[in-house]
């Protein structure tokens, strides 16, 4: 198995592009800031100097080309790896990953977690993304989507005493709705937001009536999606997210 994986990986690499040393690489003046290296590498990718699948030069070579220390390069490469831009393959090197929405999701996750206004930012992002997802889901949804959403809501009714399961079903509801919108970026952003929702929103369950209200709000969304009523779906989702945000602020004081 390992041999096959390595063989397939080697076949996907263009030998002429390995360890490319583009003339565009210039020394970085602010050598103490790995962020500058990240920006410089991003610019190389944007301009097509490096492309998906390319093996990037080794740490030592990059340090020489950019005119910085190896520790600076190491930090920059780690940052790009966390964001999903670069992947390391044992015994081979570091490669630029194929374009995907994972980098965007990672950037969103860190930005929302570290922002000084993170709760307000999270609510605003949810409204912008999930309201549009609801509208698109109502427009494009398949025949199986409303029944699946109704089943999730019904299962939520059966788990009032299990906060963890109720939260998981709540997340599942929003993710399924986003996926029904037919846009992979919407779906990925919604999934990322739901990861943040799990961090904070469980606190709202201590507020009496929260679960009943959540289910009623979800039902209005599903009814609109079932009827292919895009405007009603948007309004129902906007109302749900605004009320959920208010409940969260109340729970957190």
UniProtKB/TrEMBL annotation:
<keyword id="KW-0238">DNA-binding</keyword>
<feature type="domain" description="HTH gntR-type">
    <location>
        <begin position="31"/>
        <end position="99"/>
    </location>
</feature>
<keyword id="KW-0805">Transcription regulation</keyword>
<dbReference type="InterPro" id="IPR036390">
    <property type="entry name" value="WH_DNA-bd_sf"/>
</dbReference>
<dbReference type="InterPro" id="IPR011711">
    <property type="entry name" value="GntR_C"/>
</dbReference>
<dbReference type="InterPro" id="IPR036388">
    <property type="entry name" value="WH-like_DNA-bd_sf"/>
</dbReference>
<protein>
    <submittedName>
        <fullName>FadR/GntR family transcriptional regulator</fullName>
    </submittedName>
</protein>
<dbReference type="Pfam" id="PF00392">
    <property type="entry name" value="GntR"/>
</dbReference>
<keyword id="KW-0804">Transcription</keyword>
<dbReference type="Pfam" id="PF07729">
    <property type="entry name" value="FCD"/>
</dbReference>
<dbReference type="InterPro" id="IPR008920">
    <property type="entry name" value="TF_FadR/GntR_C"/>
</dbReference>
<dbReference type="InterPro" id="IPR000524">
    <property type="entry name" value="Tscrpt_reg_HTH_GntR"/>
</dbReference>
